[in-house]
Protein 1
Amino acid sequence: MVTGGTKYDAIVIGAGHNGLVAAARLARTHGRVLVLEAGDRLGGAAATSEIVPDYRAPAIAHLLEGFPRRIERELKLARYGLRYAARDVPTVALDRDGDHIALPRNRREYAAFSKRLPKDAEAYRERVALLRAQAELVAPLLGQVPPRRDDPDALKRFLRRAVLRAEWQGRSALGKLMHTLPESIGDRLDAEFESPLLKGVLAFDATLGGGEGPYAPGTSFRAVWREAIRMQGQGVRQPVGGMGALADALAAAVEAQHGEIRLGARAVRILVENDAVAGVELSDGAVLHAPLVVSALNPRVTMLGLLGAARLETEAALELRFAAPAGSTAKINLALESTPVFSGLAPELHGARLVIAPSLHELDEAAAECRDGGFASEPVMEILVPSLADASLAPEGHHILSIIVHNVPFHVEGGWEAKRETFVQKVVRTVDAYAPGTADAMIAGEILTPPDIERKYGLAGGDWHQGDLRLDRLFGFRPSPAFGRYEAPVPGLYLCGAGSHPGGGVTGLPGWLAVEAIGAAKGGER
Amino acid sequence: MTPDTAPQKEEPVEPNRKDIDPQDEQAAVDPALFEEKPIAPPFERTVLTTPLHLVTSLESRTNRWTDWNGYTVPEVLTGLGDEYRALRGAAALMDVSPLVKYRIAGRDAFAFLQRLVTRDIENLGVHRAVHVILCESRGLVLGDGLLFRLADDDYRLVTEETHLAWLMDSSEGFRVRIEDVSATLGTLSLQGPLSAFVLMQAGVGDVASLAPFAARWVTIAGMPVYLSRTGASGDLRYELWSDAEDAPHVWRWLVECGGPLGLRAAGFALRELARLEAGLPRAGQDYLSAFAAIDAREALPPAAIWASPAIDLDKGLFNGRAALRRGSDEPPARRVVSLAIEGLEPLRFSTLSLEGRVVGAATSTGFSPALGANIALAVIDAEAAAAGALLAAAERRDGLSVRETLASVRVLAKPARAHPRRLAVPAPLRP
């Protein structure tokens, strides 16, 4: 039945980076591809937004940590304008008294590091080695489609590389990983290190994006996970022109393959005919036909909202019903009329990831406050000054401060309308304590609370990961067992967002692997 | 509250005093109005009775009661043999109110039920009923029941076990109202060759024209009753659904009109025997709901429980479709079958073996006078069912002594009782 509307070979819903990666890869093999974006710009959470004219800041995410080289090469993103302003961006733990710790990336930096922390240096080296070893077991699993649930051989094949590597690493490698799985990062760090600041920054990285504190079980594995995600990519990088440049390059790759991208087109319904996907209905009533629909939206929104629980079996719908995501991260972008100076920080490190997480205690408190609908008196956060490496973002001499605040609740006690100003002031006051003069140099700012992120970027619950990166929601259990291989029980419908394996972060992998799963399903039919 | 912490007794206030100004906030009020009265929660009552409890206890000559779905119902009212003779020779009246009844109504009721049950209910007309099977995502049976269509968007699902949680979980995305109406309905089962005649005597006009699995609103003794030609029996049978308050009067009137024709009131034991003779498995007894089966092998697909289960793989999405499609070509490993052991005395048995190996167990047993044999429903390995030569470890009791013997078992190809009268149109008024 074709009653008007246009026909495509595939429709991708959502022009976030995962949606665009999926579209660009689909366009090469699956004919006419259409990307639908409800908002008025590309990139989703990986976009560049203008605070005020001439001051451009990364909308939400500000660094590429695990964007794989193979995606970049196969989609020829360099040809479409993807350049890097900074490669291998270091991480610095900011100290209240100016005695900062730069996490070492090489031997030379390690020497400085061990001078700063003579007692912890050796332990840090061991920890990094163990983390790398464990991440190497997990990393191969992130780059491939999870195995079928009903096929034990597929699971064996899936795990084979990890097991072989573990055998090669030695007998204790798997045992240590098993020990790491349920452990909390706080307990692990307390056992290994002395410096509260070092513990703070390591635990910050392990818990960022989740709602749990450093002493929550399973957080130790998240550090391994994050390391494994980083291994997919080519080091921490900052694209020229902000994260939006990545989205633009991906869009150019889509259009080069004659794909079409429509902004301001909100999908409201996924149409099903004869038990298979038939197309998408837009909010203006237009009907677009396609035998293949790939959604980069939250799995819950896609399946229960666009498709409808009635089109799924009861248990599949139930699995998603209780996986309501709730973000715990806020974003603040500040425009400064001068160069921010962090007291005691070497000039070359001002472009680094600057983490304010003074100790485990602060993190734990912030998480507890967040759970109760409040925010800590001294918020924990990650700061980047992207305009140092990329002058195109702000007028000369002026700068951008891109701040990711951790442990910010979606529902704040008293409502965000009442608390927004207090919150910004707390963050600015904290930043000002480390970089005196910031508050005075501020000429404009933009704040995105978790509800703002949901409203503006369509991320349900304001959750970047579209569902917590918990042990029970990874691999084939992400977002839930029935949808673990990107495909929905309705033929022709696939998921390709951060809600699917391997999860959040600007990696492009969910989108990339979804297309792989689509290809595998097609091959299986023949 | 100990006596010394109890508040001082205040002077009693006379109610309805004319001089009290209703606008005066300081005016003395009757404290009794604000006393907390304890409300007994319903689950505090552990003995649940059906709306027919009083009338059935008046009929009871044995004081033998049993528990069915949590309700106290008579096991035997006069004597099982007596009741059985009435069932086969005239008519038997039973209280089946403990059956679980859901009302499913709303704009999407049809779509909701199509997704819920395995059979296609597209052609289910108003005032008709069908047997339906509920499956979960692995294609294993959760339960079965009878689905009535009361009006266009109004259905009644009658099941043996409760399924409310599953129904509510399944209702997401449908505009449908689900209500457990078990307690608001009294249900009578009238079975036997004279049951149509009894209804006619009770004043129901044109009983004979009511087709099997059809239903109709009738008036019995001045009370509205939903009469359906359904029931767990291999003979002519009817079920009468009425308001809980009306049910005892319907019961009395039927006993009064049917008594001279040989109608007897009967208990749960007879219902079980009639069901067993008709070869109808009961949820929770002969098979377990897939959610209740702890051992995965005890959860069964529909094809294992019914010889030709109503499944329509082409009707559209329903729970279990994908799994049933995958498994549609392979026969089930275990099956529910009807068995018989020859002999004229009741036996106790449960374990079934083939060449010394245990292959299954009897789940419901009873002595069938119709067949003159012990019959049972049993879950056994499918290949053992085909092999024959099964043996059952039977117990023979003689006074206080018990003898254990091995009795040879025959798998019944058709149920012990399946009288053509059951489906005859028009329904015979005379046997």
Note: Chain B has two domains: 43-331, 333-416.
Protein 2
Amino acid sequence: MKTRKLTGALLLLLAVAALPSTAGAMHISEGILPPQWAALWFAVAIPFVAWGLREMKIRSAREPFFKPMVGLIGAAVFVISCMPIPVLTAGTCSHPCGTGMAAILIGPALTVVVSSVALLLQALFLSHGGLTTLGGNIVSMGIVGAYTGWAVFHVTRRAGLPLWGAAFLAGLFSDWATYATTSVELASALPGSGSFLHMAAAIGLSFMPTQLPLGILEGVITAGVYRFISVRRPSLLECLGVATAGGAR
Amino acid sequence: MKKVFLLAALAVVLAAVGVYFLGHVPAKWSGVDETVVEKYAEEAGRPPRKPYINTDQGDLLLFFFLIAGVAGGFVGGYCFRELFPPQKKS
């Protein structure tokens, strides 16, 4: 059991090693949020992280493969959320988040946990995000991204979409929701010349040329991961409750 | 096995063409953290500060990548095989 615990942590270290240089995109950098806003986002994030840890304990006691699975998903979230991708339409780089994919496989509560670990490691070792802005980044990427992806997946499954289609939309909307939340966090904390809504819209619109195509890419990644697992080990999806989500295939 | 090598060679060629193409596009390829997040933060008088732990000094960052790669690479490969064992040939 101790080996399995180590596995998760070491898989995340593997993800650190996969990165050639520091990268930045949606993460709010160190020092940007005023202290009261940084504290507020920490207060919002902590109950979700605690709930996720509780889920982890319960589910890993039930399924022995669950901890390595969470470690592997955590490593994937770490790499994806740190991987700068050039977007030709905008001439800038940004990254997908991977939280939609994680949420449909291990659930939103545990996605919050793996996102928190990934964001903490990025802030500590890669100058990506920040320690004071960790709460805000957990809320946008970990909480909003995960729960949006999970909700979209289950709603579209109930609407009768095939699993790969639901996975695509989960990835797409989790990405867009993450960046929309970052816009709201920045607009609420940084007093601009206009109103809050004006500021949030301006920041959101600035993200759009880069993030619209990247959201589609994130959808493709999510659907691709689902397809890989469904071909290589469909029993894993059944154990995780994904194959039966929203009814029959 | 031949198929794997062909795919790998194709990927390398495509990557080289892609990198060459990107290098000739007149763009800075800055991250949106710089072009969006930090831009609005600086306008509002809250520019980002340096990280509390700055590993981007000389070869220090490379050292962290190496240590993490050695430790995580072995365990990651082991764990992947545990979750996704090789498909048996019929």
Note: Residues 16-24 of chain A have pLDDT under 50 and may be disordered.
